[in-house]
Amino acid sequence: HKAGCCFARQAGAVLQNVHGLCLAENKNDEDEASVDEDIGKSRQGSKTDDEVVAREEEAIKLDGLNVAQMKEMRDKAEKHVFQAEVNRMMKLIINSLYKNKEIFLRELISNASDALDKIRFVSLTDKEALRHTDEFSIKIKADRDNHVLHVTDTGIGMTKNDLVNNLGTIAKSGTSEFMSKLGEASSATEMTDLIGQFGVGFYSSFLVSDRIIVTSKHNDDEQHVWESDSEAFSVSKDPRGNTLGRGTQISLHLKEEAHDFLEENTLKDLVKKYSQFINFNIYIWSSKTEEVEEPIEDDEATKDEPEKKDEDKDDEDDDAKVEEDKEEEKPKTKKVSKTVWDWELMNSVKPIWTRKQSDITDEEYNEFYKNLSKDSDEPLAKVHFVAEGEVTFKSILFVPKSSPHDTFQNYGKNIDNIKMYVRRVFITDNFEDMMPKYLSFVRGMVDSDDLPLNVSRETLQQHKLLKVIKKKLVRKTLDMIKKIEKEDYDKFWKEFSTNIKLGVIEDNSNRTRLAKLLKFFSSNSDTEQTSLGEYVERMKEKQEAIFFVAGTSRDEVEKSPFVERLLKKGYEVLYLTEPVDEYCVQALPEFDGKKFQNVAKEGLKLDDSEKSKERKEALEKEYEPLMKWLKEDALKDKIEKAAVSDRLTSSPCALVASSYGWSGNMERIMKAQAYAKAQDASQSFYSSQKKTLEINTRHPLIKELKTKVDADANDQTAKDLAVVMFETATLRSGYSLQDTQGFAERVERMLRLSLDVPLDAKIEEEPEEEAVADDVEEITDADDELFGDDDDDNDDNDDDGDGIPDDKEKDTDGDGIPDYLDDDDDNDGILDDQDDDDDGDGIPDAKEKDSDGDGIADYLDKDDDGDGIPDDKETDTDGDGIPDYLDDDDDGDGIPDSEDEDSDGDGIPDFKQVDTDGDGIPDYLDDDDDNDGIPDHLDKDDDGDGIPDHLEKDSDGNGVLDHLDDDDNDNGIPDYQEVDSDGDGIPDYLDDDDDNDGIPDEEDSDANGNGIPDFMEVDTDGDGIPDYLDDDDDNDGIPDYLDDDDDGDGIPDKKEDSDGDGIPDYLDDDADGDGIPDKLPDTDGDGIPDHRDKDRDGDGIDDVKQKKKPVLKKSNPSEEKSLFSRILTSIKNLIISNDDDEDDDDQVKKNPNPSRKKKNEKNEDDHDEEIDLFDIVKSVIGSNESDDKTKDENKSNKKREEIKKRKSG
């Protein structure tokens, strides 16, 4: 039996790459082949090659062996070559079998776990099996310098024959052979739980390594070394002797692209992902920083002592002796930070699903849920069970407290909330059918020993068993939800009601179970929802159906005409106010033997007594002429029929759908579908179905209408009344009107009649504008000619007054052919219809065109045609009556604009049509989109609209610009909460170490680890110039040295309070609230910060008395060079003035002496009126505008006086 166990296929081993040695040997062969060619040449190159070989051999040597010993071992090793079919299989495994390279570590750990299980099983009958060590562990260590990854276990180990037979033959695994021998045992206690079955997992190591070295020691043999490069392998006795005691070490020499697997965090993540529930302890060689006490060396202690200088012998007091103080006892140790390496346990979380439920506390379940789901809240409900039958598995399922924010954005997509384990090894969470879509919110795990895996152990072989598991998971989940306590169930229903309703629609097999979970509002209670079971218990005697009505709100359905008689007679009605509710109920044929009745559709029965039937028959006979007139005359082609109503009490009439037609609520939902087809046959069929007009024979309007029709069936007033009643019934029944304009006109006509306003009464004409005053003489084109002037404001298309319209005599190129007859206006050789610049003035015509003559070129004009409607509000590409800015599908091709590359349907992709500057070159080909002479890659304003691009970008199109938007991509998560610099799953705002470099952010000058100090990356206004180089951090046009609010956050810098302690930063000794006083400005170095120092410059004079308050006065235009300098001067004066006021206020608060207070009160009186920055700019600019306006008026008046003189002369 012991010999049989020697067939252990232990692939939990150690790998090391000797690819460098092969390269070196090949290089030596090439040197020998080229000796003749190199005669007479320097041999320095060969020397260098030898050094390279030596370095490579040094890099791939085993611990405890030098290069010479490695060579000797390889020379004595038995060489083996893989068979041809095995070689082909090897390539298949490496290149095709595995989808994900990272699973190599899972395979090695699984193999190591197998080996540990074997030795543990053997030790039950052989006490000597553990003589070398009784430790059962797996250890992983990365050698970054040599790019080698070691995986070591204390398992059963392998003999020389095992290494040759098991590792040298693919798909002949020690585990498979071991299990076949155990299968011969009759006792169940002799069975063991082994993971590997195929014997190929070990070779997945070649996905990431060029060479593998396996060192193994079995109790029945000496320690041997197996080495392979995937082409061949060798086995040799280990010259180091027994270094392992027992077990196996696999050394992988990693490929260059796989060096990431040497990173400590990467290894930890992989172990936690795939193997955290393995039975045996898994350790990783990891580092941590610790504070340790170290003794201070004598040399170091004396190094800092200052050298004593000899005193001058000629000192005046030779006899004076100075007593020296005894030296204080100095510390003998000091604290230093050291990097300590040690083994760190990775799988401390044990698989609680393998334990009995009675032994597991709620705290343990909650902790397991948080670890599994990464949710910070505790679960709302849980179920732990073991399923037996066709497939046996253990499972724990949880219902979270809140619904994920993207539940329905990702509805129907693959979910990863259920994790599949096979024998406690994680296999996958990428399922399409493990749980139905409507239960995608359920979190949990499944662990089975029976599920067959494919060869790569990445996917399951038999989907039939998955369906069995799915069925049991769904049943257990619904049972768990059903058992939730009422108080918690209300919370559950608030979060997941839509999921359950979708389940009723989608899951036929569980529809009855799901129906028992449904809850709706009803007329029975104003606040509490009711289940269908509770409704049925309260049903009236002889009530055959469950009544419901659907609408947008409770208020709407309560006032619906359809529920009037039901509520009056005391029937309970369910109120369906969610969009999915009506779909849900329609999918339910019945509940507890009771059918559902939509009270907005035909088929409603309330009273089937003989007396009631006779009364209704009499009314139908009496009102038959009216109903026939409504159907065939007044409402022809609008209704299917007219009928006497059983459901109305206070409304005159209502529009009732057929049994299979749309109710008003359903029609509204269907028309609101974002992805509905423009011409959908099914939708057209349902929407075009005519409705039944039910009339209330007891209503006075119906009675009066009957009287009018009986008197005169052609009465136009009666017809108008019937149409208006039909349209109001349409609205009250929840449908939309087709002819809203006609409805408005009919209502207006009836209002005229009720107010005795004649139908032909005209609308009063608008008064004409007052004529121009007589004393103002109009300047004509003749006056323009007389004075050589050109006053376009008074032109009538003849500026020069020669009687020829200007557009008929314009000749741009002076060739004698007027432009309106000339094919080439600017004589540049390009015909006008092909010329972007017809008049040759250097300005593209597109920039000069002004359709409405308002002085604003079309490309800048938001209303080209001057009709008062912005162009972007009246464009309707597909002519469907819906402007493009409201239309989800501009070209009506059935593809939503958000997904349509050609939204206007002209056959040209949209991005190829954008031409910002109208120069005929589309933006995607144009180096200068706005034609401002600055290439786009250097231009901060590509479209030339005067607004920097970063200030008008709106990534999610929600109307809020990115620089003002807390959520640029509109996913419901604030942007700052999504930044994760090191990708460790912890967002930066919660991460103490953003770049994962081991240095806490508060001590790290480069917190995000991108190689650039953080202060050099701060760019408040996003203009590409970091703040430390930017003169205007917030891009508000005010230089920072004059700006009260440098960062543009709306809070003056002097009022900002970083730590929120109520003390502004400029007054706070500890602005960041870290307990360490900040260093504040101290001009005279007297130890008193400036803001508390009465004498900052240390000249002995109080600063407040010393300062002279500047006066804000209007600048003299003659002394200023430009308008900007005048504005800047005014702003500067204002800031200085305000700063002094604040300084004075601070001083008064700290030194409230009477004289000072009096002075300050006077200053406050002088500056009582607040001066606004905008007022200053306006006043300065206003002075210029006033001057210009005065000059224009003087010019016009002078011109009119001259005209009067000439005419009178």
UniProtKB/TrEMBL annotation:
Record region (Disordered): 291-333, 784-1122, 1135-1209
Keyword Nucleotide-binding: yes
Acidic residues bias (residue ranges): 291-302, 312-327, 784-804, 814-842, 853-907, 916-933, 977-1006, 1016-1050, 1058-1075
Record keywords, A-Z: ATP-binding, Chaperone, Endoplasmic reticulum, Glycoprotein, Nucleotide-binding, Signal, Stress response
Pfam families hit by this protein: HATPase_c_3 (PF13589), HSP90 (PF00183)
GO MF term set: ATP binding; ATP hydrolysis activity; ATP-dependent protein folding chaperone; calcium ion binding; unfolded protein binding
SUPFAM superfamilies hit by this protein: ATPase domain of HSP90 chaperone/DNA topoisomerase II/histidine kinase, HSP90 C-terminal domain, Ribosomal protein S5 domain 2-like
Superkingdom to which the source organism belongs: Eukaryota
Alphabetical list of InterPro entries matching this protein: HATPase_C_sf, HATPase_dom, Heat_shock_protein_90_CS, HSP90_C, Hsp90_fam, Hsp90_N, Ribosomal_Su5_D2-typ_SF, TSP_type-3_rpt
Occurrences of domain Histidine kinase/HSP90-like ATPase (ranges): 100-258
Bias type Basic and acidic residues, positions: 947-956, 1076-1105, 1186-1209
Family: Belongs to the heat shock protein 90 family.
NCBIfam families, per the entry: PRK05218.1 (NF003555)
Protein name: Heat shock protein 90kDa beta
UniProt organism field: Mytilus galloprovincialis
